[in-house]
Every structure is written in C-alpha cells, then in structure tokens.
Specification:
- The complex is a heterodimer of chains A (389) and B (1084).
- In chain A, strand 3, helix 1 (51-55) and strand 4 form a beta-alpha-beta unit.
- Chain A contains 10 helices and 19 strands.
- Chain A is an alpha/beta fold and 389 residues long.
- Chain A has a 10-stranded mixed β-sheet, with helices on both faces.
- In chain B, the strands form 7 sheets. In chain B, strands 14-13-10-11-12-15-16 form a 7-stranded antiparallel β-sheet, with helices on both faces.
- In chain B, helix 1 (25-39) packs across helix 11 (319-327), helix 5 (120-127) crosses helix 6 and helix 13 (420-428) packs across helix 15 (448-455).
- The chains are: A alpha/beta (389), B alpha/beta (1084).
Chain lengths: 389, 1084
C-alpha cells in the first residue's frame, strides 16, 4: 500500500469538501448534502444497495460511512426506505457524484435528502483507497467538512479528528434511544402495498430501544406482535410492568460496555423471569454482558450485506446484513451459554443462546433492510418461544 | 458434507462447435469443471466435437472424445468408459439436450449412469414453458400472460388472451432460435410456424409483451444443503425485447432500491428451490415495470451460461468451478474463495466498480440480413469492460469492441437529423450501437425525456451519456485541458486519448504526450470479490484513473521483479477471429509458465479461458487499444524484466497494435513486425516470392476502379478481389466479369491510395491447401498440411479440410513442405506461420502467407498430438525447436485422419443465402477423427449437426461446369440404393450418361416443384452448385429450404464427393468412438 502522506498546503482546484483523518491524511472532494463539519469514526460498508437505510440506521451514530460501491444515490431517496426518523450517522464518503434519481419510488435526489437531514457528504474520493486503509490500519477517526466556498481549514479539522475520543467507552445508545415509551404498530413493506399495519396481535413484546432499526419492529409486528418500545435506560420493573410475553433487545451504536453500565442490571433481572428474550446487534452484546461474557472492539468491524454466517445447529449458511464494530469474545462465554452462529469471514461469534432458557441473540441483522432476508427465521423462533410459554 | 466417495468417474459433455448463442464461455466453464474434478481425484471423461477448445487438450481430462455430441455417440462413449455420473450443466443447451435425450431413450438407466448437477426432471421443469409457468404460479411469482401452443389453431386462440405485440418462444431451442416479436397477425402466423419447426418438440410459447420493461438477470449458486448465494446481478441497458445476449448489460444492477433488489433475490432463490436445481449455477431472468416495480419472471437456465461466465469475470467468483465441486457433494462453506484465499465460497461477492458488457455483431457478413435485434440472439461475440464508474466502463467497452469506435463517436441518423421525428424514429429501432444514436440524439438537442420515450432505456443510463456528450462539447469548444486536474477529470470519465484527440482536433500521439507530461497515468485496481474488505493476492486487474491532482492515485498492480512476457489476446469474438486464437494465447500462458517466465495476459473477452484469473500469472482485463496496452506494459516494466510482448497469437487484433507498441520502445517477441508487414504487403511479398522462385496466381494491386479494370483484364476473369489487410475474407468476392468488377468497386469497398484492393486470378477447380509451420529462426517444422475439401475460392475458414491430405500426391506434399520451409527462412519466422496454397495438377501457387498463429493451429495440435502453440510461445521467448525434441521436418505418418468442418449461423439470419464464397461466414468448427477419410468426414458432418442419410432421395442440380464431375458421386449414390431426382438440365445429362433419374421442376417452373418436395420430406440430401447472379437468385429458396428443413446440402462438387464417401463408410459398418489419447498411445 502506498503511503504517500498528502500535503495539507496544496489544494486541488474545485474542492469543496475534505475528509481529514486523525493522522493528517486528507481526502479531497466535492461536498454534498449539508454544509458544515462533523467528526466521527470512519467505517466502510460494502453494500451495493440500501444507502438510505444505511444512513438512517441508528447504529451508525458517531460514524462516517465510506461506501465502497462507487455509484450511490442512483435511486434517489424516498419516504419509505428509512430506519429511523432522525438519522444518527454523521456523514458519508462517496466515489462518484450523486446523480439524479431513477426509480419509480424516488421522491427526491439523494443529495437533497442528505441536506434535508442535515447530513454532510463528500464525493470524488477513492473510497477503495479509504477502505484499504481501514482494512490495514483499523477504523480511524476523521473529520468531514463541506464548505461550498471551498474554504477548508485542514489543520483545524485534523485537530478535531485527533481530539475526538473515539467510540470506545462511548455510550451512544442513550443519544439515539427514544426517551419515552411508545407503541409501534407498523408492519413490513410489500411491493404495491407499502407498509402494513398490525393485525390480530397475538403477543406483546417490549423492545428495549438502544437505537432500534424500524424494520426490526416491523418484522415483529408482521408476526403478530404488539410492540411497546421503551428507552434504553428503562428498568426491569418498567419493562415487566407492560406485562410482555417476550422482551426484545434492539440494535444500537457505541461501546456495549458503556451502555451496559445501566442496561446490564436490567437485562440480568429480566433473565430471571424466564421470559423469552431475543437480542440483535448491540442487544446481543448487552445480553452477552449480562450473562457475564466480554465484548471488545474489532479492528474495523463488519459492515455489508454479504456476510456468511453459519448456523451451528443446522450447518446451513445464511447471507446476512451486518453492522458492528464491537464483538462478543467467544472464550468469555460462561457455562450454560452456547455459541449458535459463527462468521465464516473471520470465525467471530455471531449468535448465542442459553441452554436452559428461551433466550438467544445474534450479532447480525435478520431484519435486513438493507440486505438479504435469509435470517428472518429468527423472528419466527422468537415468536415460537412466546407461543410455548 | 465432503465430496462423494461412491463415485470415481465423471463424464462431462461440451457444447460442440461455436455457434451464435454458444461460444467460448462453455470452453471456459467446461475447462474449469474438468480441472476442478480432476483436482478432487475423479477420472474425467469428456466429449466435445470442437477441437479449438482448451477442454479437449489431452491434459484437461483423462479420456477425451472428439466425437459428435449426439445421443448415439454419447451412448458409445458411455459404453466404452462406463462413467459413474454425467454432469450435463457445463456444455450449454447442447449438453443439456443431449443428456435429456440419453435419459429419455433409456441409455442412462441401462448403463447405470446418474445425472448430477441438474436431474432430468429438473431440466424438463426449467425448459418446458408450461411446467415452468406452473411452478412459478405455485410459488406466487408472476409470469407474463402466456399460452403454450402446439399448432396454428392453438396459436390463434392464444392470441386472443395475449394480444399484440406477442413474443414467440419455441421450447428447447438455443438462444431463442426461431423466436421473435410479432407486431401483427401476418408476422404472428409466420413466426409461430417457424417456431414450431425450430422446436424439437413442436412447442411454442406465445407470450404477453413486456417490451420496454427493465430486464435483469440474477446468477445464483445453490448447494445440496440448500445454501443459496447470488453471485451477481446484471441489468440490461437495453430493455425487454432484445435478447440479453444482444443487449448492452451492466453489473451490478444500478437502478433498484434495496427493497426491489431483495424481492428479486428472494424470487431467484425461490425459483431454484421450486425447480429443484440441487447444486450448481443457474440464471434467472426478470422483467420489471419501470412505472410501478411490478416484477415478472421470464425464464431460468438450470446450468452455467454466457451470463454466468460474465458474472464470474465480473466478480472474480468462478461459478463453473464451484458448481462442479458442488455437484460431487461439497457444500459452499467447504470450498475456498480462491481470490482472497482467506474467506469461503459461501458468501455473496460485492464489487466496487461497474462492469459493462457489449455485444458484437456481424450483420455486414450476411447480405440480406436485417440489422434489427429481437428476442433471438444474433451477436457473435462480446467485450466486457471494467471502470470505477458507469461512464468510464461504458467508454472502455465502446473501444473494446474494435469496431472503429473510440468512445461515443458521432453517427449519422438514418433519414437525417433535421427533424426530431427522424431522430425519434431512429431511437425507437432496436439496432446495434443504439447508444451511439442516443448520444447523437443529445447532440441534436433532444431531452432525456424525449429519448426515453423513444427507446425506453432507463433515464439513469441516458443521463450518464448526456454528461459524456456535454463534456465532449466542452472539449470541442475549448480544447484540451492541460492542467493535471482537468485532464484527470476527463480520463476519469473514461475518455480515450484517441477520442480526446478527435474532439480537440489533435493527433492521438499529441494527446498521449500531453497527458503523460501532465502526469496523468492510469492506476490498476484488483477484482477481488469483496470490494477491498480482504486483501487479494490474486493479480486480476483493471485500469482506472484516481488521484485528486495532488496525491497520485493508489495503484494495486504490485508488479513483480520476475522475467515476464505480455500476451495480447484477441478481443471480442467475431467471424474470422474466435476461440482458436484464444486457445493459442492460453497455450502461450501454459508454455511460458512451464518455462518459469511470468505470464501477463491482456484481453477483454469475458467468454474466454484466457481471461480466467487462473490461466496466466497476471491478468489485465483491458481494451486492446494501443493506449490501454502501452500503459499497462509501462506499469509492468517498473520492476523485473519484460522479455517482450507476444502479438502473433491473438489474431489480427494484437497484430494491429504491433507498430504502436514497437514505436513505444517495447520489445516484440518472435517474428518481427517488419516481416509480418512484408507478408501482408503485396509488392514486397511478390518480390520475395520471385526471389525464392515460387509462383503466385497472376495478380495486381489497384487504387482506383480504372486501374482495377486494367488489371482484371490482363489477368483474365474470373478474379478474386478484396481489400488489403483483412481477416476472415471481409468483403472478398469472386468477380466473373467487368460488370461485376464495377459493382464491387462502387459498392463493396472504399478504395484509396492508402487502402488498395488486391486482385488475383481465380484458379478454378484448384485444390486449396493450408499449412501450419513452426520456426525458431533456423529450424522449420511443418506441423500440419491440410487439404481443403471445397475448392479454392471458398474461404479457408468455411472449407472443410483433411489432415493429412486425402488426395494429394506425395511429390506435391514434398514440394509444399519445401516451399513452406523456404518462406519461413526468408521471412525469418520465429514462432508460427500459416501458408495457403492452391494446387492445380502439379502446379503449386502461394495464395497467402501469415507469419502468425492461424485458425487451424488447435486443429493441427489435436490431430497430430503436438502442442504447437505452447511450443511457439517458448520459441518466441528464446528456446529452440530442438529443446522440445523436435528433430524431424514434420510429424510422423499418422494412423488417423482428422477432418475439420465449419459450422454456419445461417439459420439465425432469415433471408440470407447459404452459398459459400471467399468471404468467411462460419462461426465455428468441429473435428471428425477416425482411421479413414470417409468415417472421419462422416463424423465431422454429424458433429456439425448434419444428419447424413443412408437411404432416401437425393436432389441434384449443378451448373454446367460441374456436370461431368457430378457423375461419379451420382452413380455411387445410385449404387447405394438412393433415388436421384434432378432439374431439367442435370436430369437430361445424367440420363444421357445412363443414370436412372427423375425430373423435378425448378421453383420457377411452378408447383409441384423441388421446394414443395423438400418441405414434404421427400428429399434427404441436396447437391446444388450454381454461379452467376441470376441462377444464384433463382435457386435461393431451394438452399434456404434445405437449411430450414434440416436437409443436408452441399454447394460444391468436392463436398458432395466427400459426403458420398462418408455415406459409404456409414453403410459399411457403424461409426466407432475412440479417445484422443488412444490415438497417441504409441507416440508416448
């Protein structure tokens, strides 16, 4: 890998944006979306489709998403393909300029939508180079600035990037979680029908919101679950006060250890009740911590829609949607906790279950959106557990 | 579950000759399958009639049968080899149909052979239109409304349901043969009738038109544990209505939201599960309504395909190799991803570039063929290109085509561009190069909306073309940017130096110089299956432009310090330049690898074995233009030692680059470009022949019509006339009189001082001989002397030929050998050389010398057992023939005779005459191998799909000149119990000679005439020679009917004679099979 340290004094003509890494590396480009500055961890995502879902996934809080696929924005933005109301990602890095949209559902160009969401983007960057850098050296902290007048203070941006504390130890779930309990009744999307509504509820699920993607809630609703969403810091009493048939631990951003400070005691208490419990992503990590396992930060994480995961019980491989930068350490699993799924990319732990209780979780995203729906069976498994109760 | 241990041998069936719809991609997949299975320790038995394939190399499989792919021959091979299982999914529709036939006639059951990959019931379900539809209904996937019909009455009823326009799709045919789009009732009836005839089961699907919808393909792989992965999505830029093989396509799909993409992904997997494809690769096609996203399933192929080859090259995921391993029991997670070597094969590749595939057509070769694209495939080849963006990828694809384009070149709008309506009309026609018309439409001021309305190409693609055109206008107006950033921006859009030169009014060299002076050079990125997520040690690369004008782009070439050779491939297949040249390039890689030299392959044809990342040490998937090639060689020269570039193995494509490469100071290996020029340059060559005392047919070179008339007059008619520097006999004609000459000069060529025409005396009834020789600069090895069956005047690529010669006298053969050696020495050939001679009695004329690999090299290698292409590459790199133990002037006397026969695409071009001439028209070839000529010729005919009769009626109608010559074969046919019928003149002549013959009317003489008899199935063989424009026209319907009715026809006496010998051989006992290896057992 060539390690040409870019000069910070010379500026190529026509630039209106820059991504400056903590070590001073500068990627110049053309700004898009909102003007301004932001700072965060730079991660890469290898999905070809689903950029709008990615930008609205709350798990990207504190992160700048570098897209490996060069053309992002082709199908514009629409009001349906969103995973949360207020996007938490800090910005995006693109290879090609955003084009006008071409899709029957497009409501506005992607860059216009980014601006409306106050998100900063940069185009014209060799995103493969950024990816290779992350792969070799780990996910760096970076500052992204978009100045339509081209006035960019690189030194200041570098200082900002270097000064940012990083995701480790950061409790970002608190920032993206709902602050008040609410009911969710939206169901999954179908071609020609859009999103459905809850019909004939059979079970009541309380979802602890660490930064839940809406599609998780929709998948539960589609299977006949009435969903009550409670804030990340809800107590066990509050959760149980809703008299749930099962409890769901949602995905979310940040360092699980930090969020675990307040969430772990709650989950420990919930485990005592013997109620079915299902966790995804950060929810999975929270569960693992509550069971006494450890989490650690990964070198650069898993983000994409092509990750193979093996179900150790059946031997089947599912192609999964992933987005995580922390992982549960397999060796730290206590007795009675079984690894159920493994990543075929790097052998890391992707799922676990309790041998004596209806409790399980996965590191990846069975709700897809974006990505393949191979793992949807996990929602059915959760519902089946509630059925048996 | 690991591989099966209950089986030890696997039979693989190839796709046979190259035809439209089945090209090198099945050599690529079959070769991968053979290698993959042998790697696992299985004994591999292979059947393929195509000698120009890598898969039929003795090293590829344990037992190779170059035999016709018919149920009969396959059964014999099974009897001889008793394989445990048959893998039918690697050889296209040919292999699939053959396997079905063997299943249906009970052979497989009788001999206990299990079918793996796709079971017969699965094949039936996927291929039978109604069964497929029912299956789709069952899983809730919509199909276009349709009806399966078996006769015209049912078809008319179907029309009431489906409406016009209607799509006609015959069952069990390859690449839509016999199908089309009917816009009115007349067309409908005609197409249904054609379709019923084309379908081996007399079945046609009449389908609702989804013309103008978006078209997608998904390449899916499944293992027996039901793990399913999508390798690649492909979006057709040309909407529904144009066969996907004829469409410009891109990977990945670019205009779907994730929700739509996942619907398609789920549907693809559901289709595989429902149809029941247990293991292997399949392709599922969809149409999507751009207005509301409504998705319908069009069809699926339960086998590897042209698209799977494309998907493999586009992503780096070797579908055929993996499919072969899955077929013998592995699951995806047990197999490695070869490219990253650290991840398993059970994942979905993701890419960080855009791939464009562009089809190449040859309508100009087929007079009378309309250049319209429909649901029946007509392209003969394709190029693939890779760029970081669609614009870059598109522009690279355009220049990869080698059709004279260097980008979105200006075109004339048919009917003039004054009126917008004319432009709209042009846009609405599904024609080749329609994207050029789109660009032109923008130049004429049409809006994206107007263009979309006319052509239905997704506006996203149109807009990218608009952007390119706008930048072009800026360059045209303001000239070329000289600054780094400005230049870089242009190159990032994919502009070639040549296109920029045109736009800025500069010479290409000047643009290249200014670009390099500005420091604008491409970088190379890797195709790694994973968008950079994992390191890739596999050097499979493409060029692009990166960098921001201050920090240079990141290059991943990681050039080695080894001794290296660059091999330039042949680009997209076309008539005259196809798989044979790819075979040679692949052999160069193999040979030089053996010699410890690093091999660097450059090509842009996704169908080929040469573009398998496994073939060479390093692979550049790049257009074969001077700019692209010189840039990558320059990158490679940064480290190690470039011994040189091989330009003589890839056909005309790399030869054309030789001059520019040499001018750039890059060494060329083997025969010098000057010697190549000497052989191509008429006057220099003539001088050389004179010095050597060799004869040429009387000839001359003309730069004007007047001059041509004078020369022809001097030589005497008939003359052979053609432009200089051609391959495949482009625009070559035999002209019989002054009138014909004038017509040729005014309509067929553009003559100038720079582009003269060559005029040769036409040697009537001469025997043509093709010779391939190897030379190391001192020693000459005459590898193969091939006697053509058809007389001189028929293009050598279209003529059948025999190795060794079947009728030439020994002294003639010895003289041919002597002359070949003399020319090889005189030209200083290092590598391969091909000579064409005409022999008339004892007189030998040199027709042509090409100091490069020829189309017959693989045939010679297979027939004689010596890998001459491999050796030639090592000779070019400095070794001597003696180093390979070659100490004789040629191969020893052979026990076997090999006959090569050409295969033609006439069936795909309605309205085109099948008569042969000096312009090449065949797409491929087969080889018949046996111990005597008759049997070998019979096998060649059967391999080419000609069903030779052993009883029945023969129709004879020959020109006066051939009457005497037809006597002997006619008599032989009578002796064998055939009935003869003939038109008046021929009948009278044969009766006079005492032969029993019945007269039949010519078509002009009224019904009942010969064509009626043929349609009624009363004729089993046709011998028809003709000359003169009028008789050719009169007998056109006769030959066309023979073609469409599947009646064997011969348009030369020599062909008829050989056929008679073949029929005699067939009557004297059945044809046996023998493996290629068995012919050379003694030699080892």
């Amino acid at each position: 890998m060539s390690e040409t340290k870019p000069s910070t004094t010379a500026v190529p003509p026509g630039v209106t944006a820059a991504l400056v890494l903590a070590d001073g590396t500068v990627f110049w480009g053309q700004g898009l979306g909102a003007a301004g500055e932001t700072v965060g961890e730079v991660c890469f995502n290898t999905s070809i489709t689903g950029y709008q879902e990615i930008m609205t996934d709350p798990s990207y809080a504190g992160q700048i998403v570098n897209f490996t696929f060069p053309h992002i924005g082709n199908v514009g933005a629409n009001p349906e393909d969103v995973e949360t109301v207020t996007p938490a990602a800090r910005g995006c890095v693109l290879r090609a300029a955003v084009t006008g949209p071409s899709n029957w559902r497009a409501a506005q160009p992607f860059d216009v939508w980014l601006k409306s969401q106050n998100l900063i983007g940069i185009a014209g960057v060799d995103t493969r180079r950024v990816t290779r850098r992350i792969r070799e050296l780990g996910a760096p902290n970076g500052a992204l600035a978009h100045a339509p007048d081209g006035k960019l203070d690189i030194a200041a941006l570098q200082k900002k990037a270097a000064g940012w504390p990083g995701l480790e130890g950061m409790d970002l779930a608190r920032e993206v979680s709902c602050t008040q309990t609410y009911q969710w009744d939206g169901s999954t999307w179908a071609l020609g029908q859009g999103y459905g509504k809850l019909k004939n509820p059979r079970f009541h699920v309380v979802a602890m919101d660490f930064g839940a993607k809406h599609n998780i809630l929709r998948c539960l609703t589609a299977l006949g679950c009435k969903v009550t969403v409670v804030p990340a810091n809800a107590s066990a009493e509050e959760v149980l006060g809703h008299e749930p048939d099962g409890v769901f631990l949602a995905n979310g951003p940040g360092d699980p250890a930090a969020t675990g400070v307040y969430a772990v005691p709650t989950i420990k208490a919930l485990l005592e009740t013997g109620k079915p419990l299902f966790g995804i992503c950060l929810g999975h990590q929270m569960l693992a911590l509550a069971l006494g396992a450890r989490t650690e930060k990964m070198h650069h994480g898993h983000r994409g829609a092509n990750h193979p995961v093996k179900d150790l019980a059946t031997g089947k491989v599912e192609i999964t949607s992933q987005n995580h930068g922390f992982v549960v350490v397999e060796d730290s699993l206590p007795d009675g906790v079984e690894m159920t799924h493994v990543s075929l990319f790097d052998g890391s732990l992707e799922g676990l279950r309790l041998k004596d209780r209806p409790v399980f979780s996965v590191q990846y995203h069975p709700e897809a959106s974006p990505g393949p729906k191979d793992s949807h069976y996990l929602f059915e498994r959760f519902v089946a557990m509630m059925e048996r109760q | 579950m690991p591989k099966r241990t209950d089986i030890s041998s696997v039979m693989i069936v190839g796709a046979g000759p190259i035809v439209i719809g089945q090209a090198c991609e099945f050599d690529y997949s079959g070769t991968q399958a053979c290698k993959a299975l042998r790697e696992e320790g299985y004994r591999v038995v292979l059947v393929n009639s195509n000698p120009a394939t890598i898969m039929t190399d003795p090293d590829t499989a344990d037992a190779i049968y170059i035999e016709p792919i018919t149920p009969d021959f396959l059964a014999r091979v099974i009897e001889a080899e008793r394989p445990d299982v048959l893998l039918p999914t690697m050889g296209g529709q040919t292999a699939l149909n053959a396997a079905m036939a063997l299943h249906e006639n009970g052979t497989l059951e009788r001999l206990g052979v299990e079918v793996i990959g796709a079971k017969p019931d699965v094949i039936a379900k996927a291929e039978d239109r109604q069964l497929f539809r029912d299956a789709m209904d069952k899983i809730g996937l919509e199909s276009p409304r349709s009806q399966v019909v078996h006769d015209m009455e049912e078809a008319r009823a179907a029309l009431d349901i489906v409406g016009l326009p209607a799509i006609i799709r015959p069952s069990f045919t390859l690449a839509g043969t016999g199908g089309g789009i009917a816009y009115n009732r007349v067309e409908f009836e005609e197409m249904v009738a054609n379709g019923l005839r084309a379908s081996p089961v007399d079945e046609v699907l009449v389908e609702e038109s989804v013309l103008g919808w978006k078209e997608y393909e998904m390449e899916v792989v499944r293992d027996h544990a039901d793990n399913c992965i999508i390798i690649c999505s492909i979006e057709n830029v040309d909407p529904m209505g144009i066969h996907t093989g004829d469409s410009v396509t891109v990977a990945p799909a670019l205009t779907l939201t994730d929700k739509e993409y996942q619907i398609m992904r789920d549907a693809s997997i559901a289709v595989l599960r429902e149809i029941g494809v247990d293991t292997g690769g399949s392709n599922v096609q969809f149409a999507v309504n751009p207005a509301d996203g409504r998705l319908v399933v069009i069809e699926m192929n339960p086998r590897v395909s042209r698209s799977s080859a494309l998907a493999s090259k586009a992503t780096g995921f070797p579908i055929a190799k993996i499919a072969a391993k899955l077929a013998v029991g592995y699951t995806l997670d047990e197999l490695d991803n070869d490219i990253t070597r650290v991840t398993p094969a059970s994942f979905e590749p993701t890419i960080d570039y855009v791939v464009t595939k562009m089809p190449r057509f040859t309508f100009e070769k087929f007079k009378g063929a309309e250049a319209y694209l429909t649901t029946a495939m007509k392209s003969v080849g394709e190029a693939m290109s890779i760029g970081r963006t669609f614009a870059e990828s598109l522009q690279k694809a355009l220049r990869s085509m080698e059709t004279g384009l260097d980008g979105l070149n200006e075109v004339d709008i048919p009917g003039g561009a004054e009126e917008k309506d004319a432009v709209r009309a042009a846009l609405s026609q599904p024609v080749p190069d329609r994207l050029l018309i789109v660009a032109q439409a923008y130049r004429h001021g049409l809006t994206t909306e107007e263009i979309f309305d006319a052509c239905k190409i997704d506006p996203w693609f149109l807009e990218r073309i608009r952007e390119i055109v706008e930048v072009e206008e800026t360059v045209r107006a303001d000239g070329l940017a000289d600054d780094l950033a400005g230049f870089l921006a242009l190159k990032k859009l994919g502009f070639s130096d040549a296109r920029l030169a045109e736009l800025a009014g500069l010479a290409e060299d000047e643009v290249a110089q200014r670009r390099r002076d500005a420091g604008v050079r491409p970088v190379y990125k890797r195709i790694d299956t994973c968008a950079g997520e994992f390191p890739s040690p596999t050097p499979y690369m493409y060029s692009c432009y990166e960098g921001d004008g201050i920090v240079p782009g990141e290059c991943e070439a990681d050039v080695s310090g080894r001794d290296k050779v660059v091999i330039l491939g042949g680009g997209p297949n076309r008539i005259g330049q196809g798989i044979e040249f790819d075979y040679c390039c692949v052999h160069a890689c193999y040979g030089l690898k053996d010699a410890g030299i690093e091999t660097i392959m450059v090509n842009c044809n996704p169908e080929t074995v040469s573009t398998d990342y496994d073939t060479s040490d390093r692979l550049y998937f790049e257009p074969l233009t001077a700019e692209d090639v010189i840039e990558l060689i320059t990158a490679e020269q940064k480290k190690g030692r470039l011994k040189g570039v091989i330009v003589q193995l890839g056909g005309q494509t790399p030869l054309k680059l030789a001059e520019a490469i040499e001018r750039a100071g890059i060494p060329i290996l083997g025969t010098s470009p000057d010697a190549i020029d000497l052989a191509e340059d008429r006057e220099r060559f003539q001088k050389l022949l004179q010095e050597l005392g060799l004869r040429q047919p009387a000839n001359g070179t003309a730069t004007s019509t007047e001059q041509a008339e004078k020369i022809a007059d001097k030589i005497g008619y008939p003359v052979v006339i053609r432009p200089s520097y051609v391959l495949g006999g482009r625009a070559m004609e035999i002209v019989h009189d002054l009138e014909g000459l004038r017509r040729y000069m005014t309509t067929a060529v553009k003559v100038s001082g720079k582009n003269p025409v060559l005029i040769d005396s036409y040697l009537r009834d001469a025997i043509e001989v093709d010779v391939d020789a190897l030379c190391d600069g001192t020693q000459v090895y005459v590898a193969g002397i091939m006697e053509h069956i058809e007389e001189a005047g028929i293009h050598s690529g279209d003529s059948a030929c025999s190795l060794p010669p079947y009728s030439l006298a020994n002294n003639v053969i010895a003289e041919i050998r002597r002359q070949t050696e003399a020319m090889a020495h005189a030209l200083g050939v290092v590598g391969l050389m091909n000579v064409q001679y005409a022999v008339k009695g004892d007189d030998i004329y040199v027709l042509e010398v090409n100091p490069r690999a020829s189309r017959t090299v693989p045939f010679v290698a297979k027939a004689t057992g010596l890998p001459i292409a491999k050796i030639s590459a090592r000779v070019m790199a400095g070794e001597k023939l003696a180093d390979f133990g070659i100490d004789q002037p040629g191969p020893p006397a052979l026990d076997q005779i090999a006959v090569k026969e050409a295969v033609f695409p006439f069936a795909r071009f309605p309205g085109v005459d099948v008569v042969l001439g000096p312009e090449m028209k065949s797409t491929g070839e087969v080889m018949g191998l046996d111990r005597d000529f008759g049997r070998a010729f019979a096998k060649a005919q059967l391999g080419a799909g000609v069903d030779l009769p052993v009883t029945g009626t023969v129709f004879v109608s020959v020109r006066d000149h051939d009457k005497q010559a037809v006597l002997a074969p006619a008599r032989d046919l009578l002796d064998m119990g055939f009935r003869l019928i003939a038109t008046r003149g021929t009948a009278a002549f044969l009766s006079e000679q005492g032969l029993t013959v019945d007269r039949v009317n010519k078509v002009l003489e009224g019904s009942p005439h010969i064509v009626d008899a043929m349609i009624d199935g009363e004729v089993q063989l046709v011998v028809n020679t003709t000359e003169g424009a009028k008789s050719i026209e009169d007998s056109f319907s006769l030959r066309r009917t023979a073609l469409t009715s599947g009646i064997p026809y011969y348009t030369t006496i020599a062909g008829a004679r050989a056929t008679v010998r073949a029929i005699q051989a067939m009557k004297n006992g059945s044809l046996e099979v023998a493996s290629l290896q068995s012919y050379f057992k003694n030699a080892e």
